[in-house]
Design goal:
Radius of gyration: 35 Å
Number of helices: 9
Largest sheet: 5 strands, mixed
Distance between the termini: 77 Å
Shape: rod-shaped
Strand order of the largest sheet: 1-5-4-3-2
Number of strands: 5
Length: 300
């Protein structure tokens, strides 16, 4: 794509793609070998004729309900930007559609650093949109919060917190990569001086904005979790209170039953007419007395 400046995009590279890069660009064999598969870490390296960038971004796995680390590699020369990725990447498809706008296309393909900047800018915009599934889940949790579903919500909140943790780790690590990239741009494009660094400094600011947003989302989730935990604790305390009161009701009945079941000669009531109903009456009176006592103490 482009006239003076070219954009070459390679999806799931194979040996044929590597041979193409080797024959057309002066790329080090170690870098070519790295391009065959995902890298272990993000990084920026500057060579004589090209700049090599490994950039990670968060993608969402609906089955696992969590963000995972995906990757786009850049090889930037004076006249080309080569992107290599190992799965379909929606922001690149959107970026292609944007290029149908002639004004935008002319702006992007003016310099390779313009093309690299706008590609990375589209990725960061994608990061922000990837937060939407988290925000939607938070909205669902907040609507269900006072509907006696504390145990179900505890599980849902745990999923969201794991997703946020994975997302923020991935995005946070890219901040240092973008700062490193911005600091090296003047040495790679010395003819453009300070102007080129301003573009990539802008990316660092955008990345920081994304981090601030996810931190705000984390605080909201923590607040929902705390509220849900308080509701669950209150619910548990009420259950324990009920069982405790039941135990207090049962204890005097067991005591009375044990007293009158003793095989003693002088046990009162036993043997008298209606002794069974007298004992039942004593038990019922004990229950009523306990009930009135608990009511008086506001325990019921």
């Amino acid at each position: 794509i482009g006239e003076k400046i070219r954009w070459i995009d390679i999806t799931m590279p194979n040996q044929q793609d590597i041979r193409f890069l080797k024959s057309n660009f002066q790329i080090h064999p170690i870098i070519l070998e790295e391009l065959l598969g995902p890298s272990a870490r993000s990084k920026v390296e500057v060579f004589n004729t090209y700049l090599y960038l490994v950039y990670f971004f968060p993608a969402y796995n609906k089955k696992e309900r969590s963000s995972y680390q995906s990757e786009v590699d850049f090889v930037i020369t004076k006249n080309e930007v080569i992107t290599v990725h190992y799965e379909d990447f929606p922001p690149l498809d959107e970026f292609r559609r944007q290029l149908e706008n002639e004004h935008f296309r002319e702006k992007v393909f003016d310099q390779t650093y313009h093309l690299a900047y706008y590609l990375l800018e589209s990725f960061i915009t994608y990061f922000e949109r990837e937060q939407h599934h988290i925000s939607e889940k938070i909205e669902e949790i907040s609507q269900e919060l006072f509907k006696n579903k504390e145990e179900e919500l505890l599980k849902e909140i745990s999923y969201v917190k794991r997703d946020i943790a994975n997302y923020s780790i991935i995005v946070h690590l890219q901040e240092s990569v973008l700062k490193s990239l911005a600091s090296k741009t003047q040495s790679f494009w010395p003819e453009h001086g300070k102007a080129v660094q301003l573009f990539f400094d802008d990316l660092v600011g955008d990345q920081l904005r994304v981090l601030n947003q996810i931190n705000n989302i984390r605080e909201i989730v923590n607040g929902l979790e705390e509220t849900n935990s308080q509701l669950l604790t209150s619910k548990t305390n009420n259950v324990m209170k009920t069982f405790t009161i039941l135990a207090f009701f049962i204890y005097p009945l067991m005591l009375i039953s044990a007293i009158f079941s003793m095989n003693a000669k002088d046990t009162p009531v036993i043997g008298a007419p209606g002794d069974f109903w007298i004992i039942i009456g004593i038990m019922m009176a004990s229950i009523v007395a306990m009930l009135l006592y608990f009511k008086n103490k506001n325990w019921l």
